[in-house]
Write a sequence for this structure.
């Protein structure tokens, strides 16, 4: 045994090579910082143009990759997590349906839009309580820690939401892109722990970049939103709710965060997290399992690709309408992030 | 699970009982709407011995602010919107009550040491907020009427007097009116 301990592993460099990352942590940090700086610079320089281009190019593909990533994290058998996934999927379905129904009912003149603030606040409340239920359910599965704190936090958020329903919805718009960074953190912790420290140090740069954008753009003239599309983009970023804040700053900040979001889902996670080629469905447990559904999963992914192509065609034909429809339907992927992020904790 | 269900049913019954309590509350008397200050600006009052008419000089910036305010008159401020929505106020109050209650339950459930730390943190935050409030109030400066105290003497001497002014837009077509807060000693 002693001799076994004294055996030098330097004689087998190839045996360790597979365990080490090809990209060193410094190069990883350099890529992250450069990407963040370029994104912030471009978003500050051409916010409206970049918003149009990034949504056109990356909205569909990032949703497809996100869906594929979630499928990879879905267990082949739910086991004792069955109730968790039941609540998760029921919540995603019902909340998305309700979210799409509100504008649909308004445009079909079934609903006049009266008390729309209350309707938004009601939807936000359901979403908060759904997430709180998931947190509590996840907490029960964890041996350590008391996750009961989720309830007072959820109720406090509900209270804020009823006071300022539109502000709460706007907060979701800005917070959602940051969730991708949390996913990357959890994924690095599992798959590339040697990069985690570097990654977290790089995250410190983010508030400084945002502060820099605030400093540079807070006194800039508002963006010219004289056409329907530009107006929609500035409204989406909260120009109507925050009239004293430059719309240039709002749109730039939102575009910057969206670029980080797309970068994580389209570039970072597939590169570091892929256990094989993205077109290989055998890397998905629910498809690879002996009692799995490979055909169903394959069909779902092909349907997803067709949806991405349809989105591109739609953007080319009528960008404004497609963008509106996309951001309504895309609520499903915002909601889906909650249960899968909780599963990684 | 059973305990949670009983708790939820009890809570539901408690909330439902509020309907009966609400039935005993008389309708509030309608109060006449007071004209609301629309814009705060600075006002200089001066005399001119050569002028034949009194003149009111308004800068383009102030006029534009007034026009914007008139355009948004129906909307009201965020605070006003909340005050005028009883449903949202009730719901926010209810959720605040639940948040504080469940936070208390959480403290009670947590370990002693953690509770002490959390309570200390809450006190620290309250202390910081309290101190900040004191500092902000201390910097608020004297009340507005102090600046207008010497207006009669200044007018007689042909000097300028500068102070704050709330510009109000009221319904109707009455003449312009300037109210100076002069206090009798």
């Amino acid at each position: 045994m002693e001799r076994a301990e004294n055996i030098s592993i330097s004689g087998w460099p190839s045996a360790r090579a597979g365990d080490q990352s090809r990209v060193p942590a410094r190069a990883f940090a350099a890529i992250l910082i450069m990407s963040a700086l370029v994104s912030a610079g471009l978003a500050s320089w051409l916010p409206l143009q970049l918003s149009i281009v990034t949504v056109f190019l990356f909205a569909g593909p990032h949703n497809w990759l996100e869906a594929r990533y979630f499928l990879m994290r879905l267990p082949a058998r739910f086991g004792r997590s069955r109730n968790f996934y039941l609540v998760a999927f029921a919540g995603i379905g019902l909340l998305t349906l309700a979210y799409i129904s509100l504008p649909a009912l308004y445009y079909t003149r079934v609903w006049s839009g009266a008390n729309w603030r209350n309707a938004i606040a009601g939807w936000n409340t359901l979403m908060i309580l759904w997430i709180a239920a998931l947190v509590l359910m996840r907490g029960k599965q964890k041996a350590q820690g008391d996750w009961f704190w989720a309830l007072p936090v959820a109720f406090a958020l509900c209270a804020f939401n009823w006071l300022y329903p539109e502000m709460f919805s706007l907060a979701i718009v800005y917070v959602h892109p940051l969730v991708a960074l949390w996913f990357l953190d959890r994924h690095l912790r599992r798959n590339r722990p040697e990069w985690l420290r570097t990654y977290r140090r790089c995250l410190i740069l983010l508030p400084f970049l945002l502060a820099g954008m605030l400093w540079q753009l807070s006194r800039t003239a508002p963006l010219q939103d004289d056409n329907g599309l530009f107006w929609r983009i500035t409204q989406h970023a909260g120009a109507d709710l925050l009239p004293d804040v430059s719309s240039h700053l709002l749109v730039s900040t939102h575009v910057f965060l969206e670029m980080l979001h797309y970068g994580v889902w389209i570039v970072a996670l597939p590169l570091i997290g892929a256990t094989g080629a993205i077109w290989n469905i055998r890397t998905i447990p629910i498809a690879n399992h002996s009692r799995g559904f490979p055909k169903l999963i394959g069909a779902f992914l092909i349907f997803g690709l067709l949806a991405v192509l349809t989105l591109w065609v739609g953007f080319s034909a009528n960008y404004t309408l497609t963008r509106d429809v996309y951001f309504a339907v895309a609520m499903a992927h915002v909601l889906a992030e909650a249960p899968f992020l909780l599963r990684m904790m | 699970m059973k305990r949670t269900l009983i708790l939820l049913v009890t809570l539901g019954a408690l909330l439902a009982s509020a309907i009966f309590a609400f039935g005993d509350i008389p309708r509030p008397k309608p109060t006449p709407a007071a004209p609301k200050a629309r814009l705060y600006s600075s006002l200089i009052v001066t005399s001119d011995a050569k002028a034949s008419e009194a003149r009111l000089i308004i800068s383009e910036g102030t006029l534009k602010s007034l026009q914007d305010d008139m355009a948004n008159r129906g909307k009201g401020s965020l605070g006003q919107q909340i005050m005028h929505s009883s449903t949202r106020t009730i719901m926010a109050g209810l959720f605040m009550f639940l948040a504080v209650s469940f936070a208390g339950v959480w403290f009670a459930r947590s370990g002693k040491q953690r509770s002490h730390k959390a309570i200390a943190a809450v006190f620290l935050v309250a202390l910081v907020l309290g101190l900040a409030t004191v500092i902000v109030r201390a910097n608020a400066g004297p009340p507005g009427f102090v600046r207008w105290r010497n207006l009669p003497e200044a007018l007689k001497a042909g000097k300028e007097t500068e102070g704050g002014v709330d510009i109000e837009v009221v319904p109707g077509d009455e003449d312009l009116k300037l109210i100076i807060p002069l206090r009798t000693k």
Notes: The mean pLDDT of chain B is 72.
